[in-house]
Design goal:
Two copies of one chain form a homodimer. The first copy, chain A, has four helices and four strands, in the order βααβαββα. The first copy, chain A, is an alpha+beta fold. Chain A is globular. Chain A starts with a strand and ends in a 6-residue tail after the last helix. At the A-B interface, helix 1 and strand 2 of A face helix 1 and strand 2 of B.
């Protein structure tokens, strides 16, 4: 099992900012995950991959696809206290879920 | 309230790797947090800051300090499937907790 987190490459986020947004997305999707799936994923070492998304539209399209696959997911908007305008979409987490199902949503993206 | 995640600067982690380790640390410390504190932090927008730690020893010292302050915390070791040797300590999450208490542990560190 794995969780994929897609972060935007077009916002010029610094490394720390990027990491915080990815963490936020990861946590939010995990909260949306059943206890059974969560425990299985955690038992396997809670694999996470961070992937590149080229813009807001891409993230929303992937979120729709995750919804159709029945995967937990979370779109993150930045509070805008630093670096970005308030409400900027920064990251999307998909899963945890079975690798092959997550790959149906994010399998075409490159590693960040 | 906030959570501080301290990531090592001396490992040459790429941006995606760094983000995944930070997310791992964040999630692990949240699992170690009482439901009351977790809900309060999430209700406030689950503020996270990512900070620079200069090496393994620093992370362990900060973890000890977090323990003494009674803050949830988690030290992350990489599984070593990519980039790093197995068991390499990569990140430490401190909190969520009250800002002033978290700052007693990580207040001297720079933003990543």
């Amino acid at each position: 099992m794995k969780q994929a987190i897609v972060a935007r490459t077009d916002l010029g986020m610094g490394r720390g900012k990027l990491a915080a947004q990815v963490a936020h997305a990861s946590l939010s999707a995990v909260e949306d995950t059943s206890a059974t799936v969560r425990k299985e994923w955690q038992g396997e070492g809670q694999t996470k991959v961070v992937l590149k998304g080229d813009g807001e539209r891409t993230l929303f399209e992937l979120a729709d696809r995750a919804e159709r696959e029945g995967l937990p997911h979370a779109v993150i908007r930045d509070a805008g206290r630093t670096q970005l305008d308030p409400g900027t979409v920064t990251a999307l987490a998909v899963g945890p879920g079975e690798d092959r199902v997550v790959d149906r949503v994010t399998g075409d993206l490159s590693l960040y």
